[in-house]
Amino acid sequence: MPLPPSGEGFVYIAGPYRPRSGTHDVSVYDEIHANIMRARDAAHFLADYDIPFFCPHLNSTHFEITAPDVPPEFWLRMDMTILIHAKAVWLVSGWEESTGALTEVEAASRMDIPVYLPDAGLLLVTDWRARLGALEGTINAIRAKE
After folding, report:
1. Model confidence, pTM
2. Which of 63, 76, 91, 112 could form a disulfide with 95 if both were Cys (CB 3.0 to 4.6 A apart)?
3. How does the average pLDDT of the chain come out, rounded?
């Protein structure tokens, strides 16, 4: 599904934060950190291509330690509030086993936000640039009529 040509927007990065066990505390720090680093790598890739993004993993990095009383459901609700404004979702490996990522994919599908699989980074870049080109062409056409 091609990207919608309405405003630049951003790409929402979705993937597992917690390990498969669902544990959300210091005992699984290494597993959580590995998930954060995979999402960070996706964010870095998008930044290299000058594509705006929101990476929930970086927004709440290791809050299971600094804010242990905040339940994981809070983070998902907050992320969903942001997701509704995204122009695309890019999945990070392991998303299929993540309750949060599956919820985000379902929501994106309901809102007709295109979802890209982990290995589709270059396709996402191509689609993003094509959408921006179409948007710029529309803006220039409107300005030419003024």
Report:
1. 0.83
2. 91
3. 85
